[in-house]
């Protein structure tokens, strides 16, 4: 069980870091052609898989 807990904690840390990086990228380059709704939708699907 401890190994699973460690893996889950690491995955949550990695996911949080990816969200921060993605938010930074979206702030730097937001062309009107690419709506920011699609990445947000993908992230919510990934969250369901991890939790």
Describe the structure.
It contains two helices and no strands. The protein has 51 residues and is mainly alpha-helical. It has one domain (2-50). The radius of gyration is 14 Å and the shape is rod-shaped. The model has no long low-confidence stretch (mean pLDDT 77).
Structure summary:
It contains two helices and no strands. It is mostly helical and 51 residues long.
Core attributes:
2 helices; rod-shaped; 51 residues; mainly alpha
Note the topology.
Blueprint: H1 2-28, H2 37-50
- N-to-C series of helices and strands: HH
Helicity range: over 70%
Shape designation: rod-shaped
Query: pLDDT under 50 segments (min length 5)?
Result: none
What is the tally of beta strands?
Answer: 0
- Rounded radius of gyration (Å): 14 Å
Roughly what is the average pLDDT, rounded to an integer?
Answer: 77
State which percent range the strand residues make up: under 5%
Count of separate structural domains: 1
Distance between the termini: 16 Å
Main beta sheet strand tally, sense and closure: none
Look at the helices and sheets and give the structural class.
mainly alpha
Helix segment tally: 2
